[in-house]
Amino acid sequence: MEFDINSLHLMSLQELAIRRLAVQLCNQPQMLAYAVKIDPDARYEKEHETTMYDLLKDLLTEVPLPPSMKHELFSLMKSVSREIIKWLELHECYLDPYNLNVCEMENLEHLCWTSLGSVDYRETALALIRHKKLGMTQRYKLACLYCLEEDIRELWRKMPEKSRKSYYDADPANLKQPDLVIIWTFILEGEVDNFLRYLAERGIFRPSMNHLAFECAATRGYRTAAQYFYEKLTFDEREDLLLNTAISVAGRRSNDYYFYMDERQQFGDVLCYLMSVMQPEQLRTLISRHPCETLKCVLDWPRQDAFIELAKSVFPGLSKPTYIRVLSYLSRNSSWGYNHSKIFQEFFMLSPSDLSYALQIYNDMLQDFFRSDDIETVKFLFRRMDDQEKDAHVLGSAGRSIYFELVKEGKWDLMKLYLEEVQMSRGDRRRIVKYFSRSRALRLEKEEFQRFKDFMNNTDFDIQEEESRGLETVRKCLMPLKSVYDKCKYFLFR
């Protein structure tokens, strides 16, 4: 398998510049203010995504770029803006929710960014600790999470004795703190052996604190801490732990969600790091066990540009169900995932014939791309259907659902594209209109139905359709003649 995960982020200066611009725009006061005020539960609702995109579009109008570059910039801004929400989600869970001011706008202004357009978690933690806006205990927790050893020791030294009691106790069962905080505190107190003995008495045997801390960090999605403690492991510990931990992390990343905030991307960050330190044989084993999860972790921002390279390297061993699962994941998330439409088409073409047996897969994907107004990918899929598959789709339940959604949302241009691509006969269109005149499950309002009926009976389209069907008839008639001509030419000139 020829693939080097360490070479994934090679970009041109122009690509880096436009990502930097996306970061600058997403850090404007109106974006940060929205991120601060949005209720955590509301982040999982469609209205949140719509509001956020409207804010991004307003910012985009002020940028003097040609339309083609604005389209690319908007795609980048969607992913960059979600980085802010993702950062808030992780730290709201990790820090004390009853004493939480990490999501104040003043703190968000200290977010640090990588050149690829992702939040630099470690540098951001350093900035927040130096800023001293957070309380002593919150800064201590941040330092433990990102393994900032000097800050951990200094903050522990300055912490009042009363506050220390909630972080250190002779009986660890009395502590209600994150695992990494407890681990670091016992390291500071020189009680590592006692802590490991305490775990062993309860059936948890670990040869060292670094071993324990690495497992905790990796399986909870803390990438910075996972790297820190992995580098502290002995050679034998690395050999024993690396592959099994990666398999465990991949399993935690495994679920396919329908909304980006549900995706466990922090595990993708950890998995990508673990893959970067693996030997080729270990990487092959991981991918054979969890092919879909491994591919998905490269689809998480900002690694999408490396997806096809990895996909090509693993494709020979990829099963048909895994191939379809990844395609479905790409289509479902096409409206928010950076470059997912282009990636979908490239991944599809690795084995374009594998879906011919499963029309339902086509139907589901088409609906996904119609919902995200992705005209190019809709065309791409239609042009890989034969006439029989098109007829089954257009006249079936999936086709009727698409008509219904397009009418309800007033997407008549997309409806026209649909009819042009499937080349529906006049009789088929009459049958569709008749279905909607009687349907109770997919019920259109009177005005909606009348407009739909008029649209389906449009005479201009009938003319285009007849011309198209005429050309297709001529082409089919000429095909046998071409075959005879080719045989004669071969006989004369062989």
The coarse overall form would be elongated
How far the N terminus sits from the C terminus, by CA atoms, comes to: 43 Å
Show unreliable segments: 462-469, 487-494
Specify the number of helices: 28
* Radius of gyration, in angstroms, nearest whole number: 28 Å
Topology summary:
Layout: H1 13-26, H2 29-37, H3 46-60, H4 67-94, H5 105-108, H6 121-131, H7 136-145, H8 149-158, H9 161-164, H10 179-188, H11 192-201, H12 209-219, H13 223-232, H14 235-252, H15 265-276, H16 280-289, H17 291-299, H18 307-314, H19 320-332, H20 340-348, H21 359-371, H22 375-382, H23 387-395, H24 397-408, H25 412-422, H26 426-438, H27 446-456, H28 459-493
How would you portray this structure in words?
The protein has 494 residues and is mainly alpha-helical. The chain has helices at residues 13-26, 29-37, 46-60, 67-94, 105-108, 121-131, 136-145, 149-158, 161-164, 179-188, 192-201, 209-219, 223-232, 235-252, 265-276, 280-289, 291-299, 307-314, 320-332, 340-348, 359-371, 375-382, 387-395, 397-408, 412-422, 426-438, 446-456, 459-493. Helix 21 packs parallel to helix 24 and helix 26 (426-438) runs antiparallel to helix 27. The longest helix has 35 residues, at 459-493. It is elongated and about 85 Å long.
